[in-house]
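Researcher: Sequence recovery benchmark, item below. Answer with residues only.
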C-alpha cells in the first residue's frame, strides 16, 4: 500500500480493486436487504467495512501484540452507535 503513492500502475490496480469490491458487495447488500438500502448507502457501508478491515490488517501486521481484538472492535462500534444514536 505504501508503494502505491510512488507506482501509478499499482495505484490504478488498487483503485480498480476497491471499486470492484464496492460494486460487487454493494449489489449483494442490495439483493440481501432489498429496497431498505439504496445504492449510495450500500457503497458507503462497503467502503466503511473495507476501511475497517484494511486498518485492522495494517495494525495487526505492524504490531499484532497490541492490535485491536474482535472484542475491542465490537465495543468501539457499540460506542459509536450509542454516541451517534443519542444525538438529535
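Model:
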Amino acid at each position: 500500500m505504501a508503494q502505491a503513492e510512488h507506482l501509478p500502475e499499482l495505484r490504478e490496480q488498487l483503485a480498480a480493486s476497491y471499486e470492484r469490491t464496492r460494486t460487487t458487495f454493494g449489489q449483494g447488500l442490495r439483493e440481501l436487504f432489498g429496497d431498505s438500502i439504496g445504492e449510495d448507502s450500500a457503497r458507503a457501508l462497503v467502503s466503511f467495512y473495507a476501511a475497517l478491515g484494511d486498518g485492522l490488517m495494517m495494525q495487526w501486521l505492524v504490531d499484532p501484540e497490541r492490535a485491536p481484538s474482535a472484542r475491542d472492535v465490537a465495543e468501539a462500534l457499540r460506542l459509536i452507535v450509542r454516541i451517534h444514536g443519542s444525538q438529535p
